[in-house]
Write a structure and sequence with these properties.
The chain is about 40% helix and about 15% strand. Strand 2, helix 6 and strand 3 form a beta-alpha-beta unit. The chain is of the alpha/beta class and about 450 residues long. A 7-stranded mixed beta sheet has the order 1-7-6-5-4-2-3, sandwiched between helices. A 4-stranded antiparallel beta sheet has the order 8-9-11-10. It folds into 2 domains: about 240 residues, Aspartate Aminotransferase, domain 2 (3-Layer(aba) Sandwich), CATH 3.40.640.10; about 120 residues, Aspartate Aminotransferase, domain 1 (Alpha-Beta Complex).
Length: about 450
């Protein structure tokens, strides 16, 4: 794998332009001296050596976890901003980066269909969901938070942190929140917020948001959409009808979490929480006279539970969305469509292969599958053997432990000698995966020959 070095010259040019903006100040040379440079060179070589102890996340042969390399412009913009090191808590700490954050968050809101919104960047999906659930409790105090059994564990954990009651509901055979189970729970009363996941972590399933929203006519509850993984896929032009229906009504949700550090091509530490009702900003109200003194404009720290926040993350996101606008039919949207296309093509290969089992077709870009075996325990053992053998051939997959209730109807001939089964999970999160599928299959095919019954 060749890492991107060519674009570093762009950073040099941009730094010179940034430095010129401070030419009116008395001369101050912050450049390290020769001895410091020599010491830094040695340390950075050690760092590079240590970083070689990683999986090749940026390479198309890494098709395991949800790890997507940042776009080069995001890396460069982040590095450029680090020379200022802005803090987007208050305008005093990051005037330009705060303005950029407001602009790029507004673009995310428009992507989901909101012209008015309240929102900001966070350290990731966990904090975005925490803030959404915190606001939900203040809007509907005492209500139970419910989500599907395949929802991210963030929700039960954050409910524990916030002291809120949480209940997990069954899924349908596609790994999506069961609407019938939800309505049965709503009938018993006491539900304050329903969490709807658009892109579950294990299988990439898309909960039926449209059907959940239809229940508003009969029951009273708040809807939070956890689209940390799948939030951008509304821009793709090759979704299935069920997923398309869900993404088309995102604007009717009360709050939404999206992670730009997943499909948004950003460095880690970039999440986003959005609220439809701007009045929820009142719940964040607090006094901080030692930070809010330079402007009567809204300081982002006034609508965030986090205090110090990296302005560089906002700069990187702004630059990326400037280069790749969030619009259907654009280059960014085509990249998402390629991710899903890669998943569909891999699923099609696996579905007709007698050596493996498949279940439901991928709704986004995650494919789950398993080697054929007579029992759940044997399937699990073979899944792990394939995972390890593929890695030895430089093809990196992932495994997931899924419940019997999710897969039993798909695999009626499997003997369930345990209640969970370990399966292979391929996350085709990079647009390049589509073009690389033949090469990926060329490695996977002999691995399957070795570790399955032909």
């Amino acid at each position: 794998m060749t890492l991107d070095i060519r674009t570093l010259e762009l950073l040099r040019e941009s730094l010179a332009h940034l430095d010129a903006g401070f030419a009116h100040l008395p001369t101050f040379d912050a450049t390290p001296n020769d001895q410091e440079i020599r010491s830094m060179r040695g340390v950075l070589k050690e760092v590079a050596e240590r970083l070689r102890d990683n999986y090749p996340y940026a390479h198309p042969f890494y098709a395991g976890q949800m790890l997507k390399p940042p776009h080069p412009v995001a890396r460069l913009a982040y590095a450029l901003a680090q020379h200022v090191n802005p803090n987007n808590h208050a305008l005093d700490g990051g005037r330009a980066s705060s303005a950029m954050e407001k602009e790029c968050v507004a673009q995310l809101a428009r992507m989901v269909g909101w012209t008015e919104h309240l929102g900001h960047l966070t350290g990731g999906g966990t904090i975005a969901n925490l803030e959404a659930l915190w606001v939900a409790e203040r809007t509907r105090p005492g209500g139970v938070i419910v989500a599907s059994a395949q929802a991210h564990y963030t929700h039960s954990r954050m409910c524990d942190v916030l002291g809120l009651a949480f209940e997990a509901l069954p899924t349908d055979r596609h790994g999506r929140l069961s609407v019938s189970a939800l309505e049965e729970r709503l009938e018993r009363g006491g539900v304050g917020t329903v969490v709807v996941t658009l892109g579950t972590t294990a299988t990439g399933s898309v909960d039926p948001l449209r059907d959940v929203l239809r229940l508003h006519g009969k029951y009273s509850f708040r809807t939070h959409v956890d689209a940390a993984y799948g939030g951008y896929f509304g821009l793709a032009d090759n979704l299935g009808s069920d997923a398309r229906a869900a993404f088309d009504v995102m604007a009717e949700a009360d709050s939404i979490a999206i992670d730009p550090h997943k499909h948004g091509l950003q460095p880690y530490g970039t999440g986003c929480v959005l609220f439809r009702d701007t009045a929820v900003g009142a719940y964040y109200k607090h006094d901080s006279p030692y930070t809010y003194f330079s402007s009567a404009e809204l300081h982002l720290g006034e609508i965030s539970l986090e205090c110090s926040r990296p302005g560089a993350a906002a700069v990187a996101l702004w630059a990326t969305q400037r280069l790749l606008p969030l619009e259907r039919g654009g280059k960014f949207a085509r990249g998402l469509a390629d991710c899903r296309g890669a998943a569909l093509e891999l699923f099609a290969r696996l579905e007709k292969d007698s050596r493996v089992r498949t279940a439901f077709s991928p709704e986004l870009d995650i494919v789950i599958w398993a080697p054929r075996a007579e029992t759940a325990s044997a399937t699990s053992s073979r899944s792990r053997a394939i995972f390890e053998a593929a890695a030895r051939s430089n093809l990196h997959l992932a495994v997931a432990n899924l419940p019997r209730g999710l897969l039993e109807s798909w695999w009626p001939d499997l003997t369930w000698d345990r209640e969970h089964v370990t399966v292979l999970r391929s996350c085709l999160i990079k647009a390049e995966h589509r073009a690389w599928l033949p090469a990926i299959w060329a490695v996977l095919d002999p691995v399957l020959n070795t570790h399955t019954d032909r």
